[in-house]
Target: Transcriptional regulator, LysR family
Amino acid sequence: MHNLNWDDLRFVLAVAETGSVNAAAKALSVNHATVLRRIAAFEDACGGPVFEREKSGYRLRPDRAQVIEAARHAAQHVSAAEALMRGGSAGVASILRITSTDTLCQTLLPKILPALARRAAPDRLAILSSNAHLDMARLHADLTIRPAATLADDLFGRQIGLMRFGVFSREGVKGPWLGLAGPLANSVPAKWMAGSVAAIDIAATSDSFAVLARMAQEGAGQVILPCLIGDSTPRLKRVETRMPDFTVPVWVACHRDLAGSEKLRSLMGSIEKLFVPHQAALAGDDPRG
Model:
């Protein structure tokens, strides 16, 4: 084992975040060989491999998530030291990245963000809106808040709410159906639609509930939405249909290998408490949203 070259951290983190040597090289404006050399030097200094080399790219080894998390924080401190040398402020606070769906990012999260930011201080929060599940194993985010029937095996967390779905349309306009595409196609409501609504009756689709709500608001048709967004969208009303009552748990979680992080556990606890006043809206029991 050799002494660690802190400059190698940039290369390790770039590969961890992109999952590709080529992508990391492009992001860092260096060649492929330089990235490979720096990764090898870092692994040699750390006493073992950090990544698993797969055909699809470089994947972080399950037992190395804490190494990368520590490296990311170390890199922030190195940047802070450089800022001090240039006469700036230390700025050693971490950036805690929270990923969630566009529905939660545009409805509930903005309401709890001020209080959550105060509790997280001096660390800063970054909210990443994505309906696709970010790769927590590559530490694309520190925490995830999203609806799912069950929590994935590689995640550690807790249920913080229950999301109800309903059928909505513009008042006085029923029209055809609007379908769920992309990541939404794997949702429970989408699976019901696949077996209950003929393709010819679907006028358009989208991979975003926020976009679907806007389409329905303009009279494009009826659509299945989380009640949290449907109830709070002007001019949309619930429609009585034969659709069953669908509810899905909402979770806050981190990668299982980071479950011992006191900072992440504290942040998860704060999110759980801040969700409590919004449980009724999330469950479709408060039409004010």
User: Anything to note?
Assistant: The chain has a mean pLDDT of 86. Residues 50 and 99 are 24 Å apart (CA to CA).
